[in-house]
Structures are given as C-alpha cells and as structure tokens.
Specification:
This protein has 60 residues and is mostly helical. The protein contains two helices and no strands.
Length: 60
C-alpha cells in the first residue's frame, strides 16, 4: 500500500512551462475604469458627518 501511494505521488514526466499571457487592451481599460471609479467615490464621500441624525421617513 505504501509503494502504491509513493508511486501515485511522484511522476517521471516533465511539466511543460506555462505560456506567458500578455494583458489585453480590455484589461488595461478595465483597470483605468476601476481607478476612475475609486477616484469618484473618494470625491463623493462626505467630508464631515452630520451633527443631527436625519429624519426617519418610516416613522409617522
């Protein structure tokens, strides 16, 4: 049983090298868009917190 496990865990064939994948144009544009969205989120974030809590529109 131990010999079977050792034989299954090792192999005698070489592992081929992986192909280098270059980033595509759409991926670079997606990264630019993500940066722009992050910048706009920072710009729209309120600087100061409100002093009073807002009205509860669901309470009558």
């Amino acid at each position: 049983m131990l010999a079977w496990l050792a034989g299954a865990a090792t192999s005698n064939h070489a592992i081929p090298a992986s192909a280098v994948v270059e980033p595509r144009v759409i991926e670079s544009r997606g990264a630019e868009l993500a940066d722009e969205i992050a910048r706009l989120h920072e710009r729209l974030r309120p600087v100061a917190t409100p002093r009073r809590p807002a009205r509860n529109l669901f309470a009558y």
